[in-house]
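Practice problem 4.
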C-alpha cells in the first residue's frame, strides 16, 4: 500500500472514531453508571398518603391542581374544572417511575439536561410537588428533558433530580406535565361539526345583524337575504364565518365579570339540526379578546347543552384576537355590486 493511501485511510478511521465517540457522548450524557432500579418517589406508593393537590413551578410560572370535594380543579385558575385524565396520567407516571441510571452531579451541567433551577424565570425545568390536604409536600421531583426511545421504540424516559440535590438521574417514564394551562384542561369548549349547523346570526357591534343558513347542498352556507343588487365578494366567505363559529379554543380562563374595560365586539349565535343553540358573546380591544359561551337546548339537544354548560357556565375565555375578526365580519364587507 502506498504511504499516501495509508495516510488517507488513517485519517478516515480517526474521523469515524471521533464521530462515534461524539454520538455516544451525546446520547448518553455524563453516565456514571447503571444502578439497580429504585422507585423514584416511594412516598406516592404509600396508601396513607392521599394526594390532595399537585403544584408545578416552571420558570416561575405556577399551576396548582387540587381535589375539591372529589373533583379536580385548577386552584390557581379560580377552580376551573381540570381534566381528570391529565391528573391520573401524571400520578401514574410519577408513581411508576424508577431511577435506572445515574447521570451527572455537576451543577454547571444540569442545564444541558433541562434540570436547572425551575424557579428561575424562563427555565424549562419543572418542580413538581405532590401535596396533602394541608399543603404539605408528600413527594417532590425536578423534571427536565425527555429522552426519546430511551427504553425502546416509543418508550421514553425523563431526566430528573431531587430538589436541593445536584445528582441527576434517568427515569424510565416520560413525565410530560408542565405549568401550561393546556396540559390540565380541555381547551376546546365548543366543537360542532359545520355540516350540523343549520342557521346563524352575526351581530357586529354598531351594525345591523344578518342571518346565515345552510345551502341546499347540505355543506355550504349563504346569506339568508342577499341585498338587492349585491353579491358575495368571495364565494367561501360565509362558509369561513360558520367554520370560525363552530369551535372555540381558549388560552386563558377567568370567572365571568359583570363589568369589564373591554368593549363589546358583537355576538355570533348558531343553531344545529338537533336544536342546540350556542351564543358567543365577544369583547375585544384589538390587543386581547374574551368570549362567553351560552349553550341551550331542549329534547335531543339538552344533553349536548348540559355537557357544554359544565365547562363554560360562569366563565369567560381568552381567545386569539384574530378569532374576533374572522367571526364578526360586517355584512357590507362581504358584498360587492352584482355587476362587478
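Answer key:
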Amino acid at each position: 500500500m502506498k504511504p499516501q493511501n495509508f495516510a488517507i485511510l488513517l485519517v478516515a478511521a480517526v474521523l469515524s472514531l471521533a464521530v462515534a465517540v461524539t454520538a455516544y457522548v451525546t446520547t448518553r450524557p455524563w453516565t456514571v453508571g447503571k444502578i439497580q432500579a429504585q422507585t423514584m418517589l416511594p412516598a406516592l406508593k404509600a396508601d396513607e398518603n392521599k394526594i390532595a393537590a399537585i403544584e408545578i413551578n416552571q420558570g416561575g410560572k405556577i399551576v396548582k391542581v387540587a381535589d375539591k370535594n372529589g373533583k379536580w380543579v385548577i386552584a390557581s385558575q379560580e377552580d376551573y374544572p381540570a381534566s381528570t385524565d391529565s391528573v391520573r396520567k401524571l400520578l401514574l407516571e410519577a408513581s411508576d417511575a424508577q431511577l435506572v441510571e445515574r447521570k451527572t452531579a455537576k451543577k454547571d451541567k444540569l442545564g444541558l439536561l433541562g434540570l436547572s433551577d425551575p424557579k428561575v424565570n424562563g427555565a424549562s425545568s419543572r418542580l413538581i410537588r405532590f401535596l396533602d390536604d394541608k399543603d404539605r409536600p408528600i413527594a417532590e421531583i425536578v423534571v427536565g428533558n425527555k429522552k426519546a426511545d430511551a427504553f425502546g421504540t416509543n418508550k421514553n424516559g425523563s431526566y430528573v433530580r431531587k430538589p436541593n440535590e445536584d445528582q441527576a438521574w434517568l427515569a424510565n417514564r416520560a413525565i410530560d406535565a408542565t405549568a401550561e394551562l393546556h396540559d390540565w384542561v380541555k381547551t376546546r369548549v365548543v366543537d360542532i361539526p359545520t355540516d350540523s349547523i343549520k342557521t346563524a346570526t352575526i351581530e357586529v357591534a354598531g351594525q345591523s345583524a344578518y342571518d346565515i343558513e345552510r345551502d341546499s347542498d347540505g355543506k355550504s352556507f349563504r346569506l339568508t337575504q342577499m341585498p338587492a343588487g349585491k353579491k358575495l365578494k368571495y364565494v367561501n366567505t360565509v362558509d369561513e364565518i360558520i367554520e370560525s363559529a363552530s369551535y372555540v379554543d381558549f388560552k386563558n380562563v377567568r370567572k365571568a365579570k359583570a363589568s369589564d374595560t373591554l368593549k363589546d365586539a358583537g355576538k355570533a349565535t348558531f343553531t344545529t339540526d338537533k336544536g342546540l343553540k350556542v351564543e358567543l358573546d365577544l369583547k375585544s380591544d384589538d390587543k386581547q379578546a374574551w368570549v362567553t359561551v351560552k349553550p341551550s337546548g331542549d329534547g335531543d339537544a339538552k344533553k349536548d347543552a348540559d355537557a357544554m354548560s359544565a365547562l363554560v357556565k360562569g366563565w369567560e375565555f381568552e381567545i386569539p384576537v384574530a378569532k374576533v375578526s374572522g367571526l364578526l365580519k360586517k355584512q357590507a364587507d362581504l358584498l360587492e355590486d352584482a355587476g362587478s
